[in-house]
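Researcher: Structure for this, please.
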Amino acid sequence: MSDSQANGPEANGMLEQRRPFFYPDSSSDTEEYRRDTEERRKRLSKRNGPCIRGRMPPKNQSPSVPTPSTSTQEPPRNGQKNQLVDDRITLVVDNTRFVVDPAQFTAHPNTMLGRMFSSGIEFTHPNERGEYEVAEGISATVFRAILEYYRGGTIRCPPTVSVQELREACDYLLVPFDANTVRCQNLRGLLHELSNEGARRQFESFLERLILPLMVESAQRGDRECHVVVLLDDDAVDWDEQYPPQMGDEYSQTVLSTPLYRFFKYIENRDVAKQVMKERGLKKIRLGVEGYPTYKEKVRKRPGGRAEVIYNYVQRPFIHMSWEKEEAKSRHVDFQCFKSKSVTNLAEATADPVIELEPLRAREEEVPEPPPDAAAEDEAQ
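Model: Predicted structure, token format:
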């Protein structure tokens, strides 16, 4: 008895819905019938178990070889699951926990987190819960954005975070901050930070090539400060040796550099330059624009024969710095060099002043002699 006769007309209807009617004379129909039989056998094997008794294996398959439906994948053991969980670490940033894979950090060994978990040196120790407290002073929102760098190589600045805050966090974690790694909606803030970084590198080059040799020259003269005026490459300076311009007490030096002149045109670049020189240990730093005499225009004669020379002045940026250590003592007056006229004895201070009588008597006895003309007039009268 077949399966359709045993199960009744309902089973026959379901069987007709599952597979169409096949013609046994057609070879293609026979292959489709075999494939349909194989699919039914796979479904039954999943329900009843890996093996069905009373069924013969296909003709093209050996009885000793199990059918594909009987092959099952071995599930992962509990030890493997625990090992995957143990590989992940927990970072605590701003009272927020981040469960991450340390392999993401070791792929970027130049960053702070990469050095922390790739080298054998323990930069930080876990707490009693086995968690690592890192990035102190960085908010959880900023740290979540920086984690995207370890996953995809880019950082998207959140709308609620300023570009400057993101930049400071990247500098702290040693994550590169440039146009290739940061995506930001606020282009003005992003370009401002990129300009600060570019200005810093450019001024460090100017400082080493152009300004430092002038500072060394001033130091070799014994000076402890330097005043540098930045001129253009085509500026001509022609001073009259007989009538030089009045430059004041400061001894100024000049450097011909049009790129440096353009650099100091922006006030933001001056702030960056001032910060760089502070980091290099210089003091009394002043940056601005002043008039500088270039050549003599005319000479005027003042009453009395004194000549007055008029020079042509151009507005050029200047930079002033000092490396003097004891600048407070240099302007301090040492009163030990002067003889003190104050009275230190209290008895002498309370006593009456001594009047010298002899000099007074001598002055009274000295009567001035009248001039000869006056004596003659007296006689005539």
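Researcher: Any notable elements?
Model: DSSP finds 15 helices and nine strands in the chain. The longest strand covers residues 283-301.
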